[in-house]
Amino acid sequence: MTKALILALTGLSVLIAGAASAHETRPDPAAMMQRLDLNKDGKVTRAEFIRAAAQRPQHDHDDRRDDARRGNPERMFQRLDRNNDGVLTKAELSQAKPRKKG
Fold first, then answer.
1. CA 56, 60, 96, 101: dihedral to nearest 10 degrees?
2. pLDDT tens for each residue of 33-46
3. What is the pLDDT of residues 47-67, one digit of tens each?
4. Which of 83, 71, 79 is nearest to 97 (CA)?
5. Quick one: DSSP state of residue 82?
6. Which of 34, 35, 44, 85 gives a 20 to 30 Å CA spacing to 28?
7. Residue 61 region, left (φ>0) first, then alpha (ψ -120 to 50), else beta?
8. pTM exceeding the 0.70 threshold for the entire prediction
9. DSSP-assigned beta bridge partners for residue 100
């Protein structure tokens, strides 16, 4: 009985740890706007978004998985520009999907 209890608790702790590592965090729209709005006019154009994406630090290793995580800036901009007006606002950035942490 004791072994079964220990195994059950061990399994439960593994599940809890896995759930914690899959925790999602919502990006901070104000921080995103500050980083992306290069000319500080309160909106992010497609050109600013792509330029900011290109300025992101590169990792030491060249890995296809890094490219997949970085995504396609053009496609990301289109997805974020909900009203298709060619600029991103703080409101649109606040609707960005949470990203998984871990």
1. -150
2. 999 999 999 999 99
3. 999 998 888 766 554 544 444
4. 79
5. T
6. 85
7. beta
8. no
9. 24
CA-CA distance, 18 to 6, in Å (whole number)? 18
What's the first-to-final CA gap in the chain, in angstroms? 35
Residues near 92 by beta carbon (within 8 Å), at least 6 away in sequence: 80, 81, 82, 83
Tokens of 9: 């608790």
Nearest residue to 101 via CA among 30, 33, 18: 18
Q: Which helix (H) or strand (E) holds 74?
A: helix 73-80
The total of other beta-carbon atoms located within 10 Å of residue 70's CB is: 13
d(CA 7, CA 14): 11
Whether residue 67 contacts residue 59, with contact meaning beta carbons closer than 8 Å, is answered with no
Token pair 């990006």: residue: 27
Classify strands 44-45 and 24-25 as parallel, antiparallel or unpaired: unpaired
Report CA 62 to chain centroid distance, whole Å: 20
